[in-house]
Design goal:
By secondary structure, this protein is mostly helical. The protein has 7 helices and 2 strands; from the N terminus they run ααααββααα. It has one domain.
């Protein structure tokens, strides 16, 4: 019985030997923690605007991207080979971002492009954090926060200016616009 216990203990020691010292633990905690925090900053902005992919989604995407990079680095993979990991992360995030995009056929609009782009961006920020490029990840987060938050006011001004011009509908959409307006009027009258 003692021989089995010793074998189990030795196996467990080998299984948990991927982190050899306090320096490795610190590096892992800093990189993954940075990815979570930076993804959370962008996710908070999306959440505060009522977008479907918000705080938790952005944090998890950033953490996952950091982990996908950190694991091969810890395993000693050559930096040139890690480019294949980058490609996989980018392709996978493309599918997730596509799920955030919705086409509203009754209004002839597409929504969710900015949220999809922010998901894509937090994956890149997570990759930077996972590679130990924390300053790059922080600068990218600050720029994204400015774009998503501060430029919203400029975008709203542009929208207000365009709506006052009485833009003509696109050919073939005249009747769709009339139907949408009448449907909106019926909904408003019924409430």
């Amino acid at each position: 019985m003692e021989g089995i216990a010793q074998e189990v203990w030795s196996s467990l020691q080998v299984e948990f030997s991927d982190v050899a010292n306090a320096g490795d633990v610190t590096r892992i905690v800093v990189r993954l923690g940075m990815a979570i925090i930076l993804g959370g900053i962008i996710g908070y902005e999306r959440e505060s605007k009522g977008k479907p992919a918000g705080l938790r989604t952005h944090m998890v995407v950033s953490l996952g991207a950091a982990l996908f990079i950190l694991i091969p680095l810890q395993a000693g993979m050559d930096i040139r080979d890690i480019s294949r990991v980058h490609q996989g992360v980018i392709a996978g995030i493309g599918f997730l971002g596509a799920g955030a995009i919705i086409k509203l056929s009754d209004r002839q609009e597409i929504q969710g492009l900015t949220t999809a782009a922010s998901i894509w961006l937090v994956a890149a920020i997570g990759v930077a954090a996972g590679m130990g490029l924390e300053v790059t990840a922080i600068l990218a987060t600050l720029l994204a926060w400015l774009i998503l938050g501060a430029l919203r006011h400029l975008e709203n001004q542009i929208d207000c200016n365009d709506s006052g011009r009485g833009m003509a509908p696109i050919q073939g959409q005249e009747s769709a616009g009339i139907e949408t307006q009448s449907a909106d009027s019926q909904r408003a009258g019924g409430q």
